[in-house]
Structures are given as structure tokens and as C-alpha cells.
Amino acid sequence: MLKGILSISGQSGLFKLVAESKNNIIVESLDTHKRIPVYSTSKVSALEDIAIYTETSDIPLKDIFKAISDKEDGGSAISHKVSTNELKTYFEEVVPDFDKDRVYVSDIKKVLQWYNSLQEKEMLDFSEPEPEEERETEEPASTEE
């Protein structure tokens, strides 16, 4: 679901990985559809690699998005521009045990902004991928006695 979706420091919005070369990657803005090169000096984060700190472990971003989607019945989340208290209250409803010392309001804003952007573009698919049929490893039952 989040494979190939990137956040680039210093650039607004999200990007889709288009191509890779020796010195850079080519990305396409999800908003403008404009393609740009991104060099190794840029800080690039793949959304599928991002997790949110909780009191007990880390929760992958896709699971946070799923929780928001469940809360909103597949609709949009609250705006990332609401007050700090509203953001914290909302996020606590979605992730009750998030680590309040390590998850900042700026992180919550990004998560909500990303969710709303992907939801608006209908890029959030929470259906489980079809598992490849597992080969039977059990020996066939013997009819000999």
C-alpha cells in the first residue's frame, strides 16, 4: 500500500518513486505530477519504513493509517491545521498508547496530512494481499498398514 511512496525533506507533499539511477532517483509529486531528480544529499523517507513510538513498541505507519480509516469509516481525518490540543486528543483516540515524550505535534500533523493526502487520491488500500498458496509440506497419508 505505501510501497514507493516517499517523503522528501525540504519538499512539500508526498512523492512516488519512478526510477533509480546511479547518482539519484526520479520521483513524481502526487499533487502536481511533476517529476524531479532527488540526489543522495536529500533526506528521503519511505512511508513503509516509518513507525510511531508507543509505550510498548513501534506501530508501522500503515497500521496507524488503518486505525484512522477505521475511526473515520474510510473518510478523511481531521485537518492537520487544528489546535495542538485537538491534534493530541484525536491522535490519542487513534493510538491510545503513543509515546507522548517521543511523538511530537509536528509528527502528528505529518501523519494526518499524509493520511488525508493519500485518502483523497484513493491510494489507501487496507485489503490484505492474497497470500501465495503454500505448498503442502505434509506427507500424503499412507494407505498401507
What features would you describe in this structure?
The chain folds into two domains: 42 residues, SH3 type barrels, CATH 2.30.30.730; 71 residues, Arc Repressor Mutant, subunit A (Orthogonal Bundle), CATH 1.10.10.1650. The protein is 26% helix and 21% strand. It is built from three helices and seven strands. The chain has a five-stranded antiparallel beta sheet with strand order 4-3-2-1-5, with no helix packed on it. The protein has a two-stranded antiparallel ribbon with strand order 6-7. It is globular, with a radius of gyration of 20 Å.
Portion of residues within helices:
25-40%
Give me the CATH architecture of the largest domain, please. Answer: Orthogonal Bundle
CATH class of the largest domain: Mainly Alpha
Q: Could you please say which CATH topology of the largest domain applies here?
A: Arc Repressor Mutant, subunit A
- SSE run: EEEEEEEHHH
- Tally of separate helices: 3
The end-to-end distance, rounded to whole angstroms, is: 51 Å
Strand content: 15-25%
Please give the number of β-strands: 7
Low-confidence stretches: 134-140
C-alpha Rg (nearest Å): 20 Å
Query: How many domain units?
Result: 2
The outline comes out as globular
Largest sheet: 5 strands, antiparallel
Assign the structural class, choosing from mainly alpha, mainly beta, alpha/beta, alpha+beta, or little secondary structure.
alpha+beta
Mean pLDDT over the residues:
89
* Order of strands in the sheet with most strands: 4-3-2-1-5
